[in-house]
Amino acid sequence: MVNMQTNRSPLETEPLTKLLFRYSVPTTLTLMVNYIYNIVDQIFVGQGVGITGMAAINIAFPLSILVNAVSLLLGDGCAANVSLCLGRREQENANKIFGQAVTWIVASGIALAFICGIFAPHIVTLFGTTNTAYGESLAYMRVIAIGIPFQLICPAFTAMIRADGSPQYTMKCMMVGAVVNIILDPVFIFAFSMGVRGAALATVISQALSALWALQFLRGKRTILHLKRKNLWIKPRILFPCIGLGIAPFIMMSTESLLTLCFNTSLLKYGGDLAVGAMTILSSIMQFALLPMQGLTQGGQPIISYNYGARNMERIRQA
Length: 319
Description:
By secondary structure, this protein is mainly alpha-helical. The chain contains twelve helices and no strands. Helix 4 runs antiparallel to helix 6, helix 5 packs across helix 6 and helix 8 runs antiparallel to helix 9. The longest helix has 38 residues. The relative contact order is 0.20.
């Protein structure tokens, strides 16, 4: 039975400029904090390990982009469908989609971690590592593979939190992880002399904390969405519409991963580890520059999706 919401959401009534600002600014800051993980690793690895360590991080970068693509496929796709259901006052359907999202996000993260852990030597070779950077690349990849479930959960769950109507909390989740990462990086790299393994371990721990922080919120009593055990069982018919909404950003992000891979192999052939290390820095700057636009579009998604579900076409055009 469809559970009809009686109270009108601020997504329907609040002035759009104020609403876009309230959703987009925290989303942009969340994305920036997410990219700080990679930048902080580069800074400390560059100082503590050198150019081969920088090259090792960039070798793993296409994998990170691919994991983010999967998070867009599942997290943003399910979040958009949740917003549509909430706009139609279909609370129970929104809860079902939420439950399916949690199941598929966690299962996909574990599967990717398992695959990348086993095939790490083949992956770093495929991604174009050199003989001099192979050891560092493999060490970094194996530790990062352990944290793939958390790397996937963080952006996917924050998308669900935005759909739930709490974009400010997403910023808190990522800030917790970023602060921990900044503290642990120098401890593991310099104090414990762990090199790139230390940078990877700091990233995994910080992402795990962010993921647990997000999950704690989604299991709380303040949320619109409610996680129920019966909704966790896999039901493909619920997931397929979400995949349809998430496939476009997934393809776009996946092709970016492929492009980075092509850059790496070409740079290693013609410039070596130094060229790959330089590209690591430039890629981070480029990604960082695009974040305000991504924050605006991701922040506007719940507003547009909700009003589309509510059939409020004029408000959609204004948004």
